[in-house]
Amino acid sequence: MRSAKDFFQPLALGAPTPLREIPLRPSRMIHFFDPSNPKMVDKVPQIARKCDVLLGNLEDAIKLEKKEAAREGLIQIASNTDLGSCQLWTRINSLDSPWMLDDITRLVLEIEGRYTAFGVHETALLGLLCQASGVATKAARCRQLAGPRPIISFGARRIHPSLAPMIERSAYVGGCDGVAGIQSAQLIGEEPTGTMPHSLVLLLGGVVPAIQAFFPIGGLGD
User: Considering only CA atoms, which of 96, 94, 93, 92 is closest in space to residue 159?
Assistant: First the structure.
């Protein structure tokens, strides 16, 4: 049988000596809450005295119409509430959602600390910001050149479907009049706008019969 003291010896030649004390304070209790719920927000100072971590959820537990209110509510709590020794965490929305970029830019305005503690995430954060802002910038340039003519984003046709909502939202922010993806339109609160399926022209043998078949089905007229 191994002696207990053997567990404090390096496991291999050149390996570091195992820790004898826990370097961080253990978090035993995490309490999830909805920052958009006023009744729950009012109880935050009391809950903070009874748990180790308060987690303001912004993701799947929050209804679509409450997303922005939850984000702003969490900012108010972080800015104006004394949580004592309780840590404040959050769970932002997923990469393929239209709220992810705002979650990052509104919540993480400044990072302070040892670079080695967060530097590993630098490239990922730059990629998230650069892609969305790049699409918005290009859309703004198209908007300026197009003048009064309408511009529609067909994001789902030029990128992976899981990323299309984020791309189309960025294009809409940049100046596009509408988006073609159904999910993208739902997430930004607009009606989808687009063309009929191109394959329909091939299936029906021409543009005219395709238009005649598509319009009544699409509810666009005769």
Answer: 96
